[in-house]
Every structure is written in structure tokens, then in C-alpha cells.
Amino acid sequence: MLEVKDISARVAGATGPLRIVGGNTKKRYGHVDESHDVLEMAGHAGVMDYHPAELVVRVRAGTRVSELVSTLAENHQVLAFEPPIHSETSTVGGVVSAGLSGSRRPYGGAVRDHVLGAGVVLFDGEYRAFGGQVMKNVAGYDVSRLICGAYGTLGVVADVSLKVLPAPEVEQSLALEMSIDDAQELVLSLTRRVSPMSASAYSNGVLRLRLSGLADDVASERQSIGGDEIDGGYWAELDALRLDAFQNAEHIWRLSTHSLAPIEHVYDLLDWGFAQRWLMDPESNPVSAEGHWTCISNTIPSFGSLNALEQKLHRNLKKVFDPNGIFNPGRLGEDI
Amino acid sequence: MRHMTPEFLKALRRIASEVILEPERLAVYETDGLTAKKQRPGVVVIPESTEQVQRITALCYEHQVPLVARGAGTGLSGGAMPHHEGVLLVMARFNQVLGVNEHALTAVVQPGVTNLAITHAVEDLGLYYAPDPSSQIACTIGGNVAENSGGVHCLKYGLTVHNVKEIKVVLPEGELITMGGPGFDTPGYDLLALLHGSEGMLGIVVEVTVQLLPQPPEVAVLMAAFSQVDQAADCVADIIAAGVLPAGLEMMDQLAIEAAEAFIGAGYPTDAQALLLCELDGSPAGLQTLIEKVRGVIQDGGAMDIQVATDAEQRARLWQGRKAAFPAVGRIAPDYYCMDGTIPRRELSNVLASIKALSERHGLPVANVFHAGDGNLHPLILYDANDDDQLERAEAFGSAILQLCIEKGGTITGEHGVGVEKINEMCIQFDSLELEIFHGIKGAFDPVGILNPGKAVPTLSRCAEFGAMHVHVGDEKFPELDRF
Fold first, then answer.
1. Considering chain B, what percentage of its residues have pLDDT values greater than 70?
2. B 45-84 residues inside an 8 A Cβ radius of A
3. Any chain B CB within 8 A of the CB of A142?
């Protein structure tokens, strides 16, 4: 078992940059410098506090996401942002640091929407606690949301407190063959009213939807939409980029845009209500009028770029949290 | 910080037409919703455009003059209390809904638009804006972002931070930056989240794009009255444990019930010790299932009276008492001091018992209204502001409640913000290492410290002077003493 004091000692004694690693399942996200010393977090694991009726769970960062998800399932609860589980070894700290949300993102919110608090070890090796274990908390700046998606460039996430929600009574997934225009129109019309839709993806002429909620609501929506029932396991495969479309791609390009943005490429897959779009190994780096591209790749990883003003704020913040530049330097971009 | 020079004021007049210096007109702005804290601003400026805000900010930066932004002034923690030698930037003229996209479910609004006006602008389309702080008729969306405001429907629909897609912000040197965007994420750090609840310390919000939601087809309100506080508190946990996520779940204690009933006559049983209001929404069929589930839990929990309202008029009647609770309490005492702590719900009975003991110790009555679903407690301390001794006791009582919230694993503010009101208690919730990071974040945006100086984050020397010890969750400050 790795304790906070061990993490603190590693950080305080660091003579150069540290590469913070949980399950090491996101090494294709951002610039990973293999020459940096590794700080293994998987040993700092376990649920610290969980009272189901409070809808809050506090876990150590090295806890496996798969284990947390089963613990919650025993109490009929879920993480509403549906964390992608790239492999059994994926950790909660990794998912939070990478800010990764799954298929439920447009309907249930992002990781950062469910982070209530975080304990972090910063540049001096000291442990600091931000946020808390309660639903509403506006004391101090929201550092625990800031660390979501920061890829460990601000500090070592030691533990997080997450809001959890009751699991839906029933879930049903379906597939419908239709044109992309019809699919977009259908998804849009479901978004426009209260609907149990909890996931949507379009690829190769097929729209897949998931309905989650009370049995009556799911049944009546199912009746109005039609389609063939499919295995609900599809969504976890999609979120973990394990579908066939993703399997053999060297460079996975992801466009984050909005649902109504013009469709400018022949995408391999479009999900999140058409707001997240995927291209495998395009001949040249794709560009779009709206949104930003991320490339998941061993050789040309990249996140979207920042303008000069954004860069200034990012560098200033990086200096506050990591003045010596030891936490995953360069992972998120130049100087951060 | 420097003083405002004649040269500075002259430059200010060249930028904005409405510059107020007359003492009698400045007096209007000397306080926000926390009326116990007053400060006359050095000068009030009412800009009309983003460009003016940029130029005013840059001028203040150049002259190192404090700048405090103000929306409707409904804040309850003194976050918009002016600086006596600084500029108060009143955003009242930024009152336009700039556009609604009914397909993207978004509205672009100026920061001075009131919270409720957003819903009014879109309700004909079957849409609404979910966060609903109790001051929603008057409070502005710019202030909601600054305070990360909540409301009755947070448990299911989230706080302001969960319902805003994009903001345009003027930074202290006058630059305009966009945070967030029309999609679900943006590159880099989540500055959009960081700005929420930053209390006007990092930038001035000049435009907000909010997420809208389709109106639920059906809504019901259940009222349950209990002869014991514990029963009501247990019921709250049992409703959640039954897998129901209510749209709103509110609780009132005996004094709050009595005051509300005397004021508005909502039909609450005045012999009850506690009252729960549970709002449910969904499809017609789904809603019936939820109502039966919750009714079962409440019956098993020993409620002495249950009422269910599905039509709009009955629902409004049941809600009326809760919504009028603050003014109702205002009728039974010359003044009240509204507190805002959050606790883990399982501590509710303990905390209410402790508040009762504190009430006796400080010799001031207290009424409790409570966003029970998310553990956000609003004790209303009754006092007379004309009696200095009572004001002092009210503040001491309030501070004791906040310390109690921290000891029970909660926080000193759930939705009202720190402002000037809870600045000392920040020294208890956070230690100097954490406060240093907060000061660092402030410096990353505002190195000279012109925006809202002295608010939200205490200096380390202030904490030393306050003499408070940082309390870790679960530790009590003097464990050897009886904790009532």
C-alpha cells in the first residue's frame, strides 16, 4: 500500500520531472516523456468513505475504475459521467486527471461535473485538500474541478470525492438503419424534449441509441422510436475505443464540437449527439471551422491549441501549482 | 493600492457617461444583500458596453485602483460590498437576452439579465433555465456565475457551473477572453469551472451562454409533516436510498413552519416539528411510479400528514410557504441573519440539536430552512440590529454554526459565497498551504490585486490575527469539552 506520505516523499525528493502513472492506459494521450522518472499511483488504492444515501464516494486515486463501478453497482448506484474503462487497470485518478467522460456525457454531465473534492500533493510534497464531500460547496476557488483534465500537470491527485447517482431502473440499447441526416434529426428531436435517451452514436449508416430510466418511460420511448435491440455492452466498448473502427488505427482523431456543427468529413463514428466525431488515420491532419481536434497517438499526440492569452493564464497557473515544473511537464502542451 | 486621483476620474468620465460621485447617490450602493456590512464606494460607474468595461478595467489596472463588479446586489455574503477608495462597476445596463438557439438549447445573455428573465425569454419554446436561487426574480446571471449560485433544484439539475456553456470575461488588464464553448469541452485547463464561484476576484463576466432544458411534462409536490425532526431527516436519506432523485427536497423546522403559516397560510400543520417538501418530475406514467415510491417511504417513516399536489395551483400553494419562509421569519423579528453551511445529510439531526443548544447559549432564536436533498442548511438567526449586543451575538452564533459545519465534514458556504462575511471562517476550513494556492490562483489572473480586494480569501496575517485553528474534518477543537 502506497501512503500519502510516500507520495509526498517522492515529490519532495524529486530531482527532475516525474511521470505520474495510474494504470498506464492513457499513454497515447498527450506528450509522454519516457525519460522522466515514473511515479506509480496504483498502490494508493481503496474506497475511503462511501455512504450510499449521501450520494458521495471518496476514493484514493489508484483505485481501479472497474472496482469502483462494481462497488457502486452493489448499491444500485453509478458514476453518471460513465468513465471510459480502457482496461482493468485503469484508475480513478487517471480518469479524473484525463477528464474523460463516456457515452452518457451529453445527458449526464462530465467528470468535472461530478467531482466534489480532491486531495492533491503539490510541488513541495505537501498534501492539500480542496472542495469536500458535500454536494454544494463554494468556499475557495474550485481547484478540484480545475485538476480534471489537467493530465497531472498541476499536481499529484491523491484522492477524489465523486457525486454518485441512483442507477437507472432499466436500460435498453437499439440500432436503426438510417441516413446521417435523418439520424441527426431524430437525436435532435429527442434532445428537444424530456427523453430517457442516455447515449447516441452513428456509424456506417446505423444509429445506435440507449434509453435509461423508469421501465414505463423506456418502454414508451422504445415504442415511439422502433429499431432493433442490441447488446448494451456496445457503449463500454465505444468509450474505451475498443470498437473495430478504433482497433487498428494508429492515429485516432477526435473532434469536439457542437451537435449542429456542419459535418465536414466522412467520419468513422459520431457520438455524443453528433458533438464528438472520430476520424481514423486521415491522410492529413484534419481541420474544422468549429470545435477542436485531439489526436490520440503514440507518435503525434496532440490536444487542441491555445491562443496567446489562454497560454499566459495556463503558464501562470502551472507556476502556482508546479513552480519547478516537475509534474508531467509538456504533457498538455508547451510549458504546461 | 493607490488613491483615485483627479486625473483618474477625468479619464473615467471620458470612457463612460454615467459616473457617480455625489455622496447621496453613492449611498444607494453601499451594501448588497448582506446589509450588516456597509461601505460607501469611491465612485460608481455604469458602463454600457464590453469595450467600456475593458477600458475601465485597464484604467484601474494602470492606476492600481480597486474595482468591484456588482450585479443586482442580492448577494448574501457581501461579495459586492464596495471599496471606499475604489470603483464600483454596476452591470445593470447589460440587461439584454442576445439570442436563443432552440435547437442547441442555449441562450446568450448579458450578465445583468435576471435569472428568472432567462426562463421567461424561453418558456414559450417549452424550455427553461434550471438553477433557481431564491432571489431569482432579482439576481443576475453575472452574479450567479460569480457565486456559483444554487437553488431548490440543484440536486437533480446542478448548480450554475453545470448549466453554463461559455462565458466572456474581461481580465484585470482589460483583455477579453472566452472560456468554455458550444461543445462539451475545450483544450487546456477548465477555466470555465474555475471562474464559477470566484466571487469577482479573477475577472468580470460580460456575456454568458447558458444551457437550457426542456420543461418536464409533469410535476408533483409532496408535503410530509413529522412530529419529530429525526423522522424527517431519516426520510430524506430513505428517499435517496430508494433510488429516487427528486427535483427538489426541502425541509423546514418548527419555527420556520409556524412563521410561514402565520404569514401565508399554505396549509402546513403548525403542530409539526419538521416538514418535508419533495418535488418530483417526469412523464405522466413515470411520475405516478415516483409518487407512489416516495409516498411509501414517507408513510413508513411515520409522517403525521401527507399531501400530494399535481396541479399547478396546489403545487404553488405548497411551495408558497417555503418560498416565503425568509420574509415570514422577517415578520417575527426586526432582523434575521441567514447562514449557509453544508453538511453530510446523515449529520442533520445532530447538527439541528447542536444549533438549538447554540441558540440557547447565545440567547437568540433560530429558524431552519434546509435544502435537505443536498445538505445545504440555512439557519435564520433572529435578532435586532439596533441592539449592538444582539448583532454581536448573532455574528458569534453564526460563526459557531459554520465551525460546527466544518467539524461535521461540511463547508462554511454551500451557495452564498465567502465574500466579507465568512472570511474568518475560511481560516478554519483551510490551512495556510491551501490558502497560499488560492492566493496564487488570484495572482495568476490579477497580479496587482485590483479586483474585489479583501474578499473571499483571507490573508495569512488575517488568519493569524483571527487566531483560529484550522480544523480537520472529524476533529473537534476542544474534544474535552461537552459538545451539547
1. 96
2. none
3. yes
Q: Is B209 within 8 Å of B169 (Cβ atoms)?
A: no
At the second CATH level, the architecture of A4-166+312-321 is 2-Layer Sandwich (3.30)
Distance of CA A124 to the CA centre of its chain: 28
In Å, how far are A42, A124, B139, B253, B340 from B377, measured between CA atoms?
38, 36, 20, 11, 6
Q: Do A304 and B187 touch (CB under 8 A)?
A: yes
Residue numbers in B near A140 (CB within 8 A): 418, 426, 429-430, 434, 438, 456-457
Cβ contact B423:B458 at 8 Å: yes
Could you read off the pLDDT of B51-110 as tens digits, one per residue? 999 999 999 999 999 999 999 999 999 999 999 999 999 999 999 999 999 999 999 999
Does B285 contact A310 at a Cβ distance shorter than 8 Å?
no
Kindly state whether A272 is in contact with chain B, defined as any CB-CB distance less than 8 angstroms: yes
User: What pLDDT shows up at residue B467?
Assistant: 73
CB atoms closer than 10 angstroms to residue B475: 11
CB contact under 8 A, A141 and B438: yes
User: Could you give the C-alpha distances from B384 to A303, B355, B395, in angstroms and in order?
Assistant: 58, 19, 12
- Which residues, including other chains, have CB under 8 Å from residue B325's CB and lie 6 or more apart? B252, B256, B259, B260, B367, B369, B380
pLDDT digits (tens, 9 = 90+) for B453-471: 999 999 999 998 887 666 6
Q: Locate the chain A residue with the closest alpha carbon to B437.
A: A320
- Burial code (b: 16+ CB inside 10 Å, e: under 16) for A291-329 equals bbbbbbbeeebbbbebeeebbbbbeebbbbbbeebbbbb
What pLDDT digit, counting tens, does each position of A130-156 carry? 999 999 999 999 999 999 999 999 999
Q: Where are the domains of chain A?
A: 4-166+312-321, 170-296
pTM: 0.96
Cβ separation A136–B282 shorter than 8 A: no
Compute CA B326 distance to the chain's CA centroid, rounded to the nearest angstrom.
Answer: 14
User: pLDDT tens digits for A142-191?
Assistant: 999 999 999 999 999 999 999 999 999 999 999 999 999 999 999 999 99
Burial zone of A330 (CB within 10 Å; 0-12 exposed, 13-18 middle, 19+ buried): middle
- Facing A138 at nearest CB: one of B415, B441, B443: B415
Structure-derived torsion over alpha carbons of residues B294, B296, B299, B303, reported in degrees to the nearest 10: 0
